[in-house]
Amino acid sequence: MAGKTIFKRIIDREIPADIVYEDDTCLVFRDVSPQAPIHVLAIPKKEIAGMDTISNDDMPILTHLWTVIRDIAPKIGLIDGYRIVLNSGPHGGQEVEHLHLHILGGRYMGWPPG
Ligand code: AMP
User: Fold this and answer.
1) Is the pTM higher than 0.70?
2) How far is Cα 41 from Cα 109, in angstroms, rounded to an integer?
């Protein structure tokens, strides 16, 4: 990976972010360009570029990420459900090469997306 991604720079506190949750394994912060009234990003602190580079050893990290999302969702106002989005590669619309889950809600999320 060439240089630090913007998310790694957030992890390293080189640039600010509106962090709503943090532990040793992951970080959850508000998206700078929200696409819904509530839009946060959940990322592992480990530098995993995306879906294509997840390894079997990463599974405990990913499991942890999902349980964190489950637990923080009601605390950030996602009381009537929400959508989780993972963009993978160019056709998936992935811009930042650091694995991240978008958690969106606060309104009805239409279908189909994109
Ligand atoms: P993706 O297109 O799935 O790679 O999503 C990247 C997301 O990161 C976009 O929704 C951006 O708005 C968001 N983003 C980019 N830079 C920042 C930042 N400095 N702080 C918070 N969110 C960011």
Assistant:
1) yes
2) 17
